[in-house]
Specification:
Blueprint lengths: L1 E9 L2 E9 L9 E10 L1 H8 L15 E9 L9 E5 L14 E4 L4 E3 L6 H23 L9 E3 L5 H12 L4 E5 L2 H11 L3 E4 L15 E6 L3 H10 E9 L13 H5 L3 E4 L7 H14 L2 H6 L1 E5 L3 H9 L6 E5 L1
Parallel strand pairs: 8-9, 8-11, 9-10, 11-12, 12-13, 14-15
Antiparallel strand pairs: 1-2, 3-4, 3-6, 3-15, 4-5, 5-7
Helix pairs in contact: 1-9, 2-3, 2-7
Length: about 325
């Protein structure tokens, strides 16, 4: 038997409850994992509160991230006792996820936990941190070096944004953090490495086709009008790594930044990123993130506290990362 947070739906209303389940209830997979930690992402919050159509079937155990120890494996790549980490692949949406003490998953979805990381540290990073690292690597691959100028990070108070600020700072970039809660989180963002903090309201006016060139590059987690504004302000031959749509999935811009300034819009996906890319990103994260990030950017909760935290994260009331101890 194991404990799990289970979502059900009736008459289009989602309910959540903590249940004791038999291992036989777990879906099919190559590897059985004793889960140590999961985390709470915005997508998890939408699933648990029912505010978004995240889960494709019910009952469902949410949790798009997890880390734990291999209990059984029919795949030669993973052995009993090995530490692993899982992010993405529709887990917590179409396949039971990490908010349970046990999980059965496909071996293709797993990455060995880097030696430098503990399980709780891996979930303090999670999908958000992996996405942030992929964004940083995309900017590097596009030739955006620290010498070229300031890098803007939108949605900087969130999980992806806060890790991106930290990683970029550790790599020597001058980071400008955008947040709607500058008075509340400004000093915290500076402690993570931001050189300065800008209020979100400065980016809410509709963008002109081209504006003054300010940023060498950017990591955007917001989309919509914010991304359009950022694109109009990026330097000649600059780049924007886009990975989120917290502000909407539309993009009210023109081709002008692309054809007159050579700006590159780099789409970043972490859900189905191939194994080699994931492994490289996790290794770089383990090398770059300082201990101060784990101390300052995260908090730990129990499974019993998840529902309340899910409501908070969907209301924009969560700062940094939330880790769930199983």
């Amino acid at each position: 038997m194991f404990k799990a947070l289970v979502l059900d739906q009736a008459d289009k209303i989602t309910t959540s409850s903590i249940q004791e389940l038999d291992v036989s209830r777990l879906p099919q997979g190559d590897v059985l994992i004793d889960v140590d930690y999961s985390s709470l992402n915005y997508k998890d919050g939408l699933a648990i509160t029912g505010k978004g159509k995240i889960c494709r079937e019910f009952p469902m155990v949410p949790g798009i991230d997890l880390t734990g120890t291999v209990a059984e494996s029919s795949d030669s790549r993973f052995s009993t006792g090995q530490k692993v980490v899982l992010t993405g692949w529709g887990v917590g949406e179409t396949h039971w996820g990490g908010m349970a003490q046990k999980a059965r998953l496909k071996a293709d979805w797993l990455v060995p936990l880097p030696e430098k990381l503990s399980g709780d540290q891996a979930m303090k990073i999670g999908t958000a941190g992996l996405t942030a690292m992929l964004c940083v690597q995309a900017l590097q691959d596009a030739g955006i070096t620290p010498e070229k100028g300031e890098i803007l990070v939108t949605g900087a108070s969130g999980g992806v944004g806060s890790v991106a600020v930290t990683l970029l700072s550790e790599l020597g970039y001058q980071v400008v953090a955008v947040t709607g809660r500058s008075s509340e989180n400004g000093e915290w963002l500076k402690s993570l490495g931001a050189s300065r903090v800008v209020e979100r309201s400065e980016f809410e006016e509709p963008a002109r086709p081209l504006e003054k060139q300010i940023w060498a590059g950017a990591v955007d987690t917001v989309g919509s009008k914010m991304l359009a504004k950022v694109l109009a302000q990026v330097d000649y031959d600059g780049a924007v790594a886009a990975c989120g749509l917290a502000g909407g999935f539309d993009l009210p811009t023109t081709v002008m930044p692309f054809i007159l300034r050579g700006v590159k819009l780099l789409g970043v996906d972490s859900v189905y990123a191939p194994f080699e890319r994931r492994q490289k990103a996790w290794q770089r994260i383990s090398e770059l993130l300082p201990e101060s990030y784990y101390d300052n950017g995260c908090r730990e909760i129990s499974l019993e506290e998840v529902s309340e935290a899910a409501e908070a994260i969907t209301n924009g009331q969560i700062t940094g990362r939330v880790v769930i101890k199983l």
